[in-house]
Backbone:
């Protein structure tokens, strides 16, 4: 039974990874539009990005439902698979399906870090001292 959950989570995490890469690419488009002072394109890309982010929220809800679907041990086991910290942890498992889930989860996290960094830079450039990321 746990293998079925791992398989479902892997599919969802792969789907999430694809969407996160899409968000990253749209973020690059936003950066370029901002450099050109192209408000129309910036607004269009922001709307596109929000749509994809909404899709990611839906995927996250499905992931959460699967993780919450079993007993407490299963919850911790599955949660730990998707919260893996290093590639080495993923490589240390003997089960290929778990390894795949952990590696995809790491990729998702890395793309998210890149997106956050780009957002910080854009936000600070646009809002200066009023930026959410400005040091208070």
Residues:
């Amino acid at each position: 039974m746990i293998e079925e959950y791992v398989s479902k989570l892997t599919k969802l995490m792969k789907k999430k990874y694809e969407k996160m890469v899409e968000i990253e690419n749209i973020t690059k488009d936003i950066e370029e539009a901002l450099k050109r002072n192209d408000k129309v394109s910036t607004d269009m890309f922001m709307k596109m990005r929000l749509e994809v982010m909404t899709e990611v929220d839906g995927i996250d809800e499905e992931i959460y439902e699967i993780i919450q679907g079993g007993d407490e041990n299963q919850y911790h086991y599955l949660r730990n698979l998707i919260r893996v910290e290093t590639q080495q942890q993923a490589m240390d498992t003997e089960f290929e399906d778990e390894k795949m889930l952990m590696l995809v989860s790491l990729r998702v996290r890395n793309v998210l870090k890149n997106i956050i960094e780009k957002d910080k830079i854009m936000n600070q450039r646009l809002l200066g001292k009023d930026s959410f990321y400005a040091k208070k």
